[in-house]
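User: Sequence for ATP-binding cassette sub-family B member 6 below. Tokens please.
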Amino acid sequence: MVEMKSYCEAGVSMQQVWVEGGLTLCFYFTLVSSVLLTLSFLFGTFLCICYSRYGTAMEPKFIPRSRLYWLQVGLSVLLVLQALGWMVFRIARSGELPGYVVVYGCLSMLGWIWAVALLRLERRRVLVRDRTRGHSTVLLLYWAVAFAAENLAFVSWMSPQWWWTLETSDQQMEFAFWLVRYFSSGLLFLLGLKAPGLPRRPYMLLVNEDERDVEHGALLLGNSNENQSTWKDFGKKVRLLVPYMWPKGSVLLQLLVLLCLGMLGVERVINVFVPIYYRNIVNQLTDGSSWKTLATTVCVYGLLKFLQGGGAGASGFVSNMRSFLWIRVQQYTNRVVQVRLFAHLHSLSLRWHLGRRTGDVLRSIDRGTSSINSLLSYIVFSIFPTIADIVIAIVYFISNFNAWFGLIIFVCMTLYLTLTIVITEWRTKYRRDMNTQDNNAKSKAVDSLLNFETVKYYNAESYEVGHFENAILKYQVSEWKTNASLAFLNQTQNLIIGLGLLTGSLLCAYFVTEGKFQVGDYVLFGTYIIQLYTPLNWFGTYYRMIQNSFIDMESMFKLFTEEEEVKDDVNAGNLDYRQGQVEFENVFFSYMQGKEILKDVSFTVLPGQTVALVGQSGSGKSTIIRLLFRFYDVQGGCVKMDGQDISKVKQASLRAHIGVVPQDTVLFNDSIRHNIRYGRVTASDQEVEEAAIAADIHEKIITFPEGYETQVGERGLKLSGGEKQRVAIARTILKAPQIILLDEATSALDTQTERNIQASLAKVCANRTTIVVAHRLSTVIGADVILVLRDGQIVERGRHDELLAKGGLYSDMWLKQQQAQDSDSASDTETKDRKSEKLQPQTSTAGHKGH
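Assistant: Structure tokens for ATP-binding cassette sub-family B member 6:
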């Protein structure tokens, strides 16, 4: 039969707050339950009214799926069951049930049930004008107060009314209930800061962006969340790393990995025995043991220290050997990452390369590849060993000392790791912003240096320097925030470590004075703790470095996730080249949605024919060349070669039969010989020179001091436009393709050189299928077929004479060019006459003076 004699226990009244060196249980539990219920019901009800009146239901697609959210719900339900279980325990223990127990149990259950209701309400509804993310202030305040209330129990550490002595089973059960409340409320507060069950970005922004995405039919760029955790998509990132962690195909490297992991386990064992032998030395010195026994212990201790290292971060024999053996594995990882990324970048489409920022890409590759090595090293050889050392230490102290030491280490480690993770996550945005500003500064520098000619033309050196300085200043602002937050983190870690060491040392010293421990035990505790805190102190650094590595790798991961726009089909075969007939059948194409470049284009180039594409700029001439080379895939119709759809064959086999001379030639920063030989890398020097002769550039090359070994400079800028174009033509001649595409191939040449090149090209293109894009119509008079394009459509086709006879668009273009040439010729003649007139009076004057 349950009996309720009074509100508080016998001899205690509600007015008594402090009794026997601690808070009274009656006052404490009444205060805590009242405050929590007031917070949840008073402010929670007001919040519910606001949500029902001014809020709206969130669309399910914007509510994230999160296991941590269900952990929040589970912890709240656990606290409800804890309050009920505590009342049942008090009844079962004595049959008496003080009034404050009933009050606490009922009010706590109601408060936590209401908190769960608020948690579910925030997950389903959102205030329309609320542009913030995360939980409401009411829930965060409720969890914070609940956790702070449980910390008040530490104030009553010495009071016999509380459970800290753990001498009876009732006290141990009370302590267990407190542990459930303490860790559940603390974890709820930490999870509340992250708000895992709510959208990571303001709901109204998500809705607006989704509407714009639907309107434009494409994802918006540049909307990545600056504040998202670097551990987002952690599994995906790890899956990308796995291929680099295990060296496939090399048994030797695999054995090295296993050996390094084995040595890592040996280090953990050594770390346990070093402080034990140090304690044995102290005890044997104080107990008066024999010299032989003492000398043996000292020698073993010396050997262990040699294997472990000198402490304070100094590496020992085992660690140094492991690092030495890991070099080969690290080199393998670095090489594989760089080669795979380089190959991936070359596989990306022309569209991506035209839109890239070279400086940004290079910085991303540089930081990303180096961060993979750092990441693997930190995770395998720093994080895992540190966690293992902590677990071993807790188990050792509980089993060989007592539970208090294990609890001290556990609480200290938990606080340390939790605060390290929370503060480091908070610092993420500063590090990410610093990387962004660094990329911007480097990109501006690279872009400015690549365009130095333009800078010189417009006398803009001071503008470029100022522009670069502004970028550096923005970077330094982000850098200061990053370093300042790092200093704050270090101070927090130092405070926790110092308090933990002080608490444990005082307790150990107390047990020594009570005779429960020997002096060696105090030495063991101090040695072990300092040895444990050394890697723990580095744990924050390791975590930051891992996080920084993930941040540095984000840009590289984006490069890896860039998909190829033009891909070979799974069952694609090699092109079966027979005669070189090219067909465009009802081709539609656009670079961007809503603006078509080619509209229902159809034509056929017979084997050995030369077809010219002419028209105004932007009419789609160069696009036809790019589609044939398959830089892009058509959106409608198809392109065929010898009756085969080129989208169904392998790109490499298609391009092996095609040679291109582009309008804008870019050369490698190497010798002329290397650039010409690039057409066929197996060609001999004699073949290279023959190609140069055919391109009418051999005589020019041999006049250079270094001949064919002359360096052409960045993008070939040491050569003139005509020389670069002729090198490109020689390169194509050396390739000896069956199909030749000339995209304004002679646009950068003077008239005489153009005639020479035209003669050379005529020989090269003989009996080869040729498609020529030309602006100057005089260069395509001899073409078999001329296609006239306007606004992406073929409006005229035929030979030169036929098109002139029609009197259409081609005829108009021809007349305009002829008039322009006649005007230029007349202008040149007039200029020469004026020069002659200026010279005539000067001659007369000179003769008069002489006379």
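The longest strand covers residues 582-589.
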